[in-house]
Dihydroflavonol-4-reductase
Amino acid sequence: MKVLLTGGSGFIAAHCVDVLLKHGHDVVFTVRSDDKGQKILKNHAGTPSSKLSYVIVKDIAQEGAFDDAVRSDPPFEAVLHTASPFHFNVTDPKKDLLDPAVIGTTGILKAVKKFAPTVKRVVITSSFAAIISPNNHPKVYSEANWNPITWEEAIQTPSNAYRASKTFAEKAAWEFVEKEKPNFDLATINPPLVFGPVVHYLNSLDAINTSNATIRDMIEGKCKDAIPPSTGFLWVDVRDVALAHVKAMETSAAGGKRFFVTGGHMSNGIVASIIRKEFPEFADRLPADIDTSLPADIFGYDNSRSKEILGIEYRKLEDTVRDTVKSLLAVGA
Ligand code: NDP
């Protein structure tokens, strides 16, 4: 298939590129600058431009940002929309997080409907943030759950703003398909905290993606006095997330569905204890006593839909943490 992948410079998108190429698809990714596009192409030296190329989309928060990018010859058959800000450096929650998430999502859908009628499936990277009810956890989370966050709560803290950005964007996507009845259908991938090897271009570990930052901090000795408290208690490997995107694009039965993709429970203490066991050279950068317990009333999770429809077999946390640390050492930790 010929596929448009938005946010090509991202941590998850880089793995999507790898899986898409491995599955024989032709990929055009969007980036904000030529510099980023060229660096990604350099990572795939030897891949012909008919298989991998890029287009510039400077700011997904602008109306019409994707109108040119979706037009292609030969035309696109599918779109993976991963681009969305994931960070907590927020001065204006609306401008920094909510607008790019929501306008970016509705923008790609409008552009596909208008200018790319050959696209049959759009896969959107949503999040567990669009599922979780932080103040009222159900016994078991699944695709049936929605974050009840309101606009008033969204602008209270950066973490609320991020969770709301993913919730409002995903809701807007389902509403668009419901109302507009476009030529394509939709699938969403809803991962919790994503760990895994860094294969995207990084100038330095200071620019690490948000979800791998705690692992970087642990090996740099920034958690020596105390392991930071965990927030989400669920994780997934980036390679499993990328495969889920591609399978959701390829599998007819995935249309019209959300996919809650998770490898299971975790805590920062469990991650730190894996680092200490796998990399004894970092033991003195971590506290002597690490609490690896999970809360007694921890919520459960049901990831069966992703296993049954997409065929995902989740990696183990030990393998993911080991591979993540190795990749960070290669960048220069
Ligand atoms: P990254 O920060 O590595 O990637 C984000 C991507 O979005 C980058 O390519 C970035 O471009 C692009 N982007 C952000 N804002 C804009 C904008 N205004 N205009 C154009 N491009 C923009 O994060 P991840 O790879 O982790 O995240 C990818 C997706 O996965 C996001 O939708 C995120 O919400 C979702 N997600 C991530 C999880 C995780 O734990 N990592 C968990 C659940 C969901 P640039 O590089 O130029 O800034």
Remarks:
- The longest strand covers residues 26-31.
- Residues 7, 9-13, 32, 36, 57, 59-61, 82-86, 100, 125, 127, 166, 191, 193-194, 209, 211 surround NDP (CB under 6 Å).
- Residues 2-197+235-262+301-314 form a domain with the Rossmann fold fold (CATH 3.40.50.720).
